[in-house]
TrEMBL record:
The keyword Metal-binding does not apply. InterPro entries: DPS_DNA-bd, Ferritin-like, Ferritin-like_SF, Ferritin_DPS_dom. Residues 22-159 form the Ferritin/DPS domain. Keywords: Oxidoreductase. This is Dps protein family protein. It is an enzyme of class 1 (oxidoreductase).
Amino acid sequence: MPQTSFIEIGIPADKRQAISDGLGRVLADTYVLYGKTHGFHWNVTGPMFNTLHLMFMDQYTELWNALDVIAERIRALGFLAPFGGNTLGQLASIKEAEQHPAALDMVRELVDGHEEVARTAREIFKLAEAANDQPSADLLTQRLQIHEKTAWMLRSLLEA
């Protein structure tokens, strides 16, 4: 993404670019996971309907709110945040759901999605830490906590 203006915050432009690009991937993963979670909320059925419907609503709401925080950090670094379904879909490591899975398969897909975002965030954390970019590192730490906790909670539903 092109830099939007001259900025001097103590992080060289090339490192800000790398962090921004990485945060763009976190943004894309979050966007695709948001869409999947919201779609599962709409379409879940079965004996766990009420529990999953409400849980998915809490999760997609959190993901939706996270999109702004991530995009605004990219902007604070001086770069344009990627947007649009096609662009974000190409940047994301998470694939959209291609079908309407059964309730527990939805849960499994969401576990995988949250773990994928955690892996992406952890990879970018290394860049932020090496560049002494505490705000990005803090944002990534918060995202890691949320995605790892959500994956654990969803995974718990799959245990016998």
